[in-house]
Amino acid sequence: MSDICGSQAAARSMQQLAREFSACRDMLVALGNENRQLIFVALLEHPGGVRVSDLAKLARLSRPAASHHLKVLQDAGLVDHYQQGTKNFHHASARLDRWAQLARVTTHAEQFVRLVQELDARAEAGKHACSESSSDPSPATDSRAAANPSPAAGPSTATRSAAKSPTSATFAAAGSSSAGSSSTAGLSTAGPSPAAGSSPSPHSAISRKEPA
């Protein structure tokens, strides 16, 4: 709701700013020329007034060009003049209504920019809040998951490794028995022990010989 209200406020501010710019178009156009800007700055720097010939020198313009630009500024209400004898002195206008229009444009332009920045900051904060809430599960979900483990998860890796299948146990037993028989066979092929031999030793043969 606050975002909608903020957007509506920004739209109203833009519309108001557009109306104020339209009311100041003649002044903005008059100040949009670089030569007229130089003339206007020279008038602000000489509050007592400046003659056309002096303005032409200050702005590095011809006298006719300076007179033309002065007329555009006068029509926009930014420049006025007074006469002293046969001489005309030009100065910045003291029309409060014209300066107030320019002041309103700049003031409302600043307010509009600040409002847009505030809306952008709110939108960015909302994005961060949504991303944090979606990435972190709720405590209730964690407790339910811990209390009710999924049956599809199956036993752990340690349990699966400990519980061997019958086939693997059979192969293991067969391997151990074959290893034992091989060692027994090796001992039997190494030769009979002297006590169990079939051939008598020479000493026993001499002892059994008949006397002459």
TrEMBL record:
What UniProt keywords are attached to this protein's entry? DNA-binding, Transcription, Transcription regulation
| Biased composition annotated in UniProt, kind: Low complexity | 143-205
The yes or no answer to whether the keyword Transcription regulation is present is yes
* Annotated segments matching region Disordered: 126-212
- Record's InterPro entries? ArsR-like_HTH, HTH_ArsR_DNA-bd_dom, HTH_MetalResp_TranReg, WH-like_DNA-bd_sf, WH_DNA-bd_sf
Domain HTH arsR-type, first and last residues per copy: 17-120
Question: What PANTHER family does this protein map onto?
Answer: TRANSCRIPTIONAL REGULATOR, ARSR FAMILY, TRANSCRIPTIONAL REPRESSOR SDPR
What name goes with this protein? HTH arsR-type domain-containing protein
| Species of origin | Enorma massiliensis
